Amino acid sequence: MSKPIILIVDDEHDSADLLGMLLEMHFPDAGFFVAYGGREALDHATSQRPVAAVLDLEMPGMNGESLAHALRQKFVDRPPLLIALSGNVLLLSQIRANGAFDHHLSKPADTDALVHLLREQLAS
């Protein structure tokens, strides 16, 4: 059986890489794919379906909200757990009601909350 894939997307390379390393320590039995843009993430998700995705909202090109909608359309039968992550709390509150994301977290990420959400998803 293959490892469950967790997708991490942020145009800030250091933030994305650091979050990926941090989560790998908590979930050694999961696979991680770190992408630095929405299009790259969507292309990867096409070849390896993620069970969860942590998406930065403000990225050039395909932003996190557009990516979340695209992932929901691609995996209508069973979409991944979608977690919005942004330092823009106003934007987070604006998108809360649109249904694109399952959870909304502000940067810097509350690691315990993020780990808890991912642990629940991986257990189901």
UniProtKB/TrEMBL annotation:
Response regulatory domain span: 5-122
Gene3D superfamilies, per the entry: 3.40.50.2300
Listed InterPro entries: Bact_response_regulator, CheY-like_superfamily, Sig_transdc_resp-reg_receiver
Recorded superkingdom: Bacteria
This protein's UniProt keywords: Phosphoprotein
A Pfam family annotated for this UniProt entry: Response_reg
Transmembrane regions: none
Signal sequence bounds: none
UniProt modified residues of type 4-aspartylphosphate: 56
This protein's name: Response regulator
